Amino acid sequence: MTTPDQTQQPAVEIRDVAFSYPPSGIGEQGLEVLRGVTMRVEARSRLGILGPNGGGKSTLIKLILGMLDPSAGSIQVFGKTPNQARREGLIGYLPQRIGADLDWPLSVEQVIAMPLRAKLKPWSKLSDEDRSSIDRAIELLEVDQLRDRRIGALSGGQLQRTMIARAICTRPKLLVLDEPTLGVDIAGQQRFSSLIDTISAELGLTTIVVTHDMRALVAVADRVACLSRTLHFHDTPDGLTPAVLAQVFAHDIEPILGEVHIDAHTAVDCDDPSHAHHPDCGHDHRGGAS
Amino acid sequence: MSIFHADYLPALLAGLGVAAIGAPLSVFVVLKRLAFIGQGVSHAAFGGVGVALVLGFAGSSVTDNVMQSVIVLAFSIGAALVISALGRSNKGRLDTAIGIVLSASMALGFILFNIAESGHDHDEHGHAHGHHADEHHVIEEILFGNILNANWNMVWVTIATGVLILTALWWCRHKLIFWSFDEPVCAAYGVREHRTGNLLLILLAISVVMAMQVVGVILAAATLVLPGAAALHLSSRLPRVMIWSMLIALGGTVLGFMLGDAAAWPIGPSIVLVQSVAYLGALGSNKSLALLRST
Questions:
Q1: Residue B126 belongs to domain with CATH number
Q2: Residue B13 belongs to what domain range?
Q3: Does the N-terminal or the C-terminal CB of chain A have fewer CB atoms within 10 Å?
Q4: What is the interface pTM, i.e. ipTM, of the complex?
């Protein structure tokens, strides 16, 4: 794993950000998704954003990418506004669901080159530097054999690697991956984790991975941010306790276990052998987190 | 009479011009599932005809003709932009947006047409009948143009429009392809999704309005679907798909002319028929190849 560099300018600086979606109908209120989120993502670090469905993870990503504007607060990516950073190709992005139209008669190489071609003047061709970026991305993601294959003829894993190659061909400094291991088995998650390790180390990337899967997160990240409308936790994965998780996932747990009352100071980690006889670690699961 | 006879030449050249414009656009139309857009914009143009009539441009003078075309074009581009905006506010469902704009424009067109007519019924100079005839003539000319009526002016307009549309397509090709292929993500790479989507719809609106006045509604709508749909069965490489689309559009036009001439059928529908057969042929060859490979 690469080591975060705290002396450098942060990769992402989020200050007191709030975001609400506008009302979707007459008489309805806007939906507040994020409020008061402040966070600093160090350059060359690997941040995992964890949180329940609807907790604002993907919205925060869209704010960092400049695809949405915050209702309040500010975001800077390498000292620039997200739109500037995006225009300069500093951000690579893999969306949660690949929504591309795979019926297009395009080869893997054409798809990978798309972000670079979109920046070209109409009469220009790809530069040698651009071509070597494409070759490097193809090599790193091991899609060399698929270079000329039609995009619609790929398997799910091949397609994901192609889209990651597309995300890094612009030589970004920040790679944002939204739920990259959704529906992937444990072996696949491990392969993915090692792939991200390799790419980040080779390219000196800062990586932000959004997930609601704990295993995927611990495998990939050196820092964790727990998000459920607001930021509940931002530290190393070691600091994640059951209390923190219960607090973040309270919205998901309540329908099953009833209202969850959390006291972070008294909550204990029942996986820790030293707490084996703690009353909260008994048979009543509700007591564990409340 | 040969289709290369001087009398046929403006019609043939106008038809080939329309085909050359429709060929690359049809690939985008088919892949973005916008096959309904040709029908939508051509019917929406009826609203533009209503506006032109109410504003008094009902004659057949050069000024009136130019003003009718300008108003219909402006109205159709406006309709395309409304379709785009409604589609965005409707979770990207362009088919619903096209249906709404088509119906509303047709309704507006009929109401304005009635207003224009009733205004002339009370014309103190008693020229009502002449005006009625003019108005019906305008509607027929604009909505149901006949390719055999094409004159050299139409050929020049078609060539100018063609140069404009093909240049715009070439100029923005990388952004248009990125947007069409992966609309949800292109914004993250600096491709302005709304601007790019609007550009394609505006180009489509211009080509439909131009094509329907030269060759009629049926051929205008068909030219934006059939060549691309057929070409996509013939290759899995975009440049080749574009070339196939162009060959089918141009070849279909020439063969349609020959068929229409030989069988004394109307030319526009003959072209559509030939291109439809080309589509079936492409589909059949694709399926046969797949079958051969699997055995």
A1: 1.10.3470.10
A2: 9-286
A3: N
A4: 0.83
